[in-house]
Write a structure and sequence with these properties.
Elements: H1 4-12, H2 19-23, E1 35-40, H3 45-54, E2 59-65, H4 69-78, E3 83-88, H5 96-105, E4 111-114, H6 123-135, E5 139-142, H7 159-169, E6 175-178, H8 180-184, H9 206-213, E7 217-220, H10 223-231, H11 237-243, E8 248-249, H12 280-291, H13 294-309
Helix pairs in contact: 3-4, 10-12, 12-13
The structure holds zinc ion (ZN) (2 copies).
Length: about 325
């Protein structure tokens, strides 16, 4: 792999390489191509491209909700080959399985994100875990116990108490963990005190152990939750990335408009003010790049998503 400087060197040395050919082939400002697993689809097709191009992202996975075919087609027409998609529907409805099965037939490569006011081990999510295994697609779940604003309520509640039993009960389901409770539990001393705990990480946390012990669990580094966990204790991060280099996947969950922090980057979440005015994608790629050697960065930013989604890199 050429570094950016080496690549620019070759160009100035006179090799007539068309720049455009390289934009999607791995030479960018991050030193490796980047796949964003957690890109919420924006209504305007061009707005999706504006974020990925602005943040130096090569390809992204559109998280869609409900009927999304036409919008996905519009994005793909604008940028062929640069977007995959997941789908979510209201999992409390009796026809949720039929709808998600149809979405996968139509090309969706996973379920997600699933973010509902239900228990992580409740009947609604259990149906989805089983269906994901049947259809051989991963399921991306938002785990959150602490409100960001009064009266918000919990999402996929019970992660710390019940999720290990779920990993055991559904060995053929590929789970992708995401959000506050998943990431706060990298620290062994966490008991739902805050959405985004700061300070040193007590080693041996639940999420660290589950990633080691269960082949069917992956981690999505997106959002303030992922960024916070990877930023709060610099003595923890390199070892964590090393241990789980085959299980972690970069994602942004960024809502900024231009890939540089314009607009609103964390959907006005008051608890995530530390990233206000910043592009979450850029902030997390920066911490990954500075905490992992290039070979591990490349796995987390690019290779692992392709393996998980079984698509060519
Ligand atoms: Zn989420
Ligand atoms: Zn952004």
């Amino acid at each position: 792999m050429l570094t950016r400087r080496e690549f620019l060197g070759t160009v100035t040395a006179g090799a007539a390489l068309p720049l455009a050919r390289f934009q999607n082939a791995g030479t960018n400002e991050w030193g490796a191509p980047v796949f964003d697993l957690h890109h919420h689809m924006r209504p305007q097709a061009a707005a999706n491209l504006a974020h990925v191009d602005g943040a130096g992202i090569t390809k992204a996975n559109l998280l869609t909700r409900g009927a999304a075919d036409d919008q996905v087609k519009a994005v793909n027409a604008l940028a062929p080959g640069r977007f995959t998609w997941f789908n979510a529907v209201d999992i409390t409805r009796p026809d949720a399985e039929a709808q998600l099965t149809q979405a996968v037939k139509d090309g969706a490569q996973g379920f997600g994100e699933l973010k509902f006011h239900v228990a992580a081990d409740g009947p609604e999510l259990r149906r989805m875990y089983a269906l994901a295994a049947d259809l051989k697609v991963p399921v991306l779940v938002h785990f959150q116990e602490v409100d960001h604003f009064d009266g918000e309520g919990t999402w996929s509640a019970g992660y710390a108490k019940t999720f290990e039993a779920i990993l055991k009960a559904y060995p053929k389901t590929t789970f992708i963990g995401h959000a506050d409770a998943f990431w706060a539990n990298v620290s062994a001393d966490y008991h739902n005190e805050a959405a985004y705990p700061s300070g040193p990480i007590a080693r041996g946390g639940l999420t660290d152990r589950l990633l080691s012990d269960y082949a069917n669990l992956y981690g999505d580094c997106s959002a303030n939750s992922g960024n916070n966990a990877l930023s709060r204790d610099p003595s923890f991060t390199p070892g964590f990335l090393q241990r789980h280099q085959d299980k972690l996947i970069f994602g942004s969950d960024c809502s900024c408009s231009d890939g540089h922090g314009a607009g609103v980057s964390q959907a006005n979440n008051p608890a995530a003010a530390r990233l206000a005015g910043k592009c979450v994608a850029r902030a997390t790629l920066t911490v990954l790049e500075s905490s992992a050697p290039p070979a591990i960065f490349r796995k987390i930013a690019w290779d692992n998503a392709h393996g998980l989604l079984q698509i060519p890199a």
